[in-house]
Structures are given as structure tokens and as C-alpha cells.
Design brief:
It is a single chain. The protein is about 65% helix and about 10% strand. The chain folds into two domains: about 100 residues, no CATH class; about 50 residues. The radius of gyration is 27 Å and the shape is elongated. The chain has about 180 residues and is mainly α. It contains eight helices and two strands; from the N terminus they run αβααααβααα. A two-stranded antiparallel ribbon has the order 1-2. α3 packs across α5.
């Protein structure tokens, strides 16, 4: 007995709720809305008109990065060398370019994105509610229950020994670690 029946009842309710909330709140990373200076930086020999056009194009590619690429690849993941087909922009500036120039611009901004993707200050961290851990852990729980039922069928007295379930659980976990799980 811990302290009193009231405290016991409180802990029986509060502890599982606290564990559930703790497991359900997780950190998520998202690209910042404002592109970093390295992504916007152009060539020094560009004139003011070209620099303005390139900055608009860079901002459009950055928006595409947030909307499309950020949902496919997460923080810390390596981006592929070649740009995916979804990494494209529409607009009057791109329509004015020749197909070859548009392809070159896409490749250039993809390489810039690959360079800034790994920089921590390009990302913002926020917390979100997600219960996806429940679905991910269900197969492991199912396997553990099956394994325990097999043990109970083979050694029925072992299950009722004091601490028998705890011993089974610890041995089962050690065997799983040995398999590389």
C-alpha cells in the first residue's frame, strides 16, 4: 500500500494518462517560411533586374520546398542528387524562360536547397499531438502476447509464480535485442 486509498486511486488514473500524453506529444520540424540568405544569394555579376527576377524565382522554389519537398523529406535526411519531378514552379517569370533555362534554374535551386537543407537554422521546431505511436507499437504488443500465450501453454505454473511474468518479459526483451530489434 502506497499512502492511502485516495492516493492509490489517483495514481491509477493519473499515471496512465500522463504516460499517454507524454508519448503523444512529439517534436516536428518544418522549413522556415523565409528562405535563408544562402538560398537567395545570386551571382555577383548579375545586374539589378536579373537579381530581382532571380530572387522572385528563388522565393517560388523555396515555397515549393516547404509545400512539397518538406513533407517528403524530413530534417536531417539527405536529399537526392537529382531534383524530383515535383520540384517545379509556375508563373510568368518561368514562362518567359526557354525550356533549357527553366531546367537549368530548377537544377541550380535544387543544388542550393541541398546545401541549405542540412543547416539547423533553416528549420523551426514545434510540438504536435500525434497518436501514431499506438499503431506502430501494436504489432510488437501482439507478438509479445502471442509469445506469452505460448509460454503459458507450455509452462502453466511459471505464469502464476510470483514475478514469473516479469521474468518472462525481461527474457523476451533480451532475446529481441539479440535479434537486432
Amino acid at each position: 500500500m502506497i499512502v492511502s486509498r485516495t492516493v492509490d486511486r489517483f495514481l491509477i488514473v493519473a499515471l496512465p494518462i500522463a504516460i499517454f500524453v507524454y508519448l503523444s506529444i512529439g517534436a516536428a520540424f518544418q522549413l522556415k517560411v523565409e528562405p535563408p540568405p544562402e538560398f537567395l544569394r545570386g551571382e555577383p555579376d548579375w545586374g539589378p533586374k536579373r537579381k530581382a527576377a532571380e530572387e522572385q524565382m528563388a522565393r517560388a522554389y523555396w515555397k515549393c520546398s516547404i509545400d512539397v519537398i518538406g513533407s517528403r523529406y524530413g530534417f536531417g535526411q539527405d536529399l537526392p542528387f537529382a531534383a524530383p519531378a515535383e520540384f517545379k514552379i509556375d508563373g510568368p517569370r518561368l514562362a518567359a524562360l526557354s525550356p533549357k533555362a527553366a531546367e537549368d534554374a530548377s537544377a541550380r535551386y535544387w543544388q542550393k536547397l541541398r546545401q541549405v537543407w542540412i543547416l539547423p537554422y533553416v528549420w523551426e521546431k514545434h510540438y504536435q499531438w500525434s497518436t501514431s505511436w499506438i499503431g506502430k507499437s501494436l504489432p510488437a504488443v501482439h507478438g509479445s502476447i502471442d509469445s506469452f500465450m505460448d509460454l503459458a501453454k507450455s509452462y502453466p505454473l511459471f505464469v502464476f509464480m510470483p514475478g514469473g511474468v516479469l521474468v518472462w518479459f525481461l527474457v523476451h526483451r533480451l532475446m529481441d535485442r539479440g535479434k537486432g530489434l
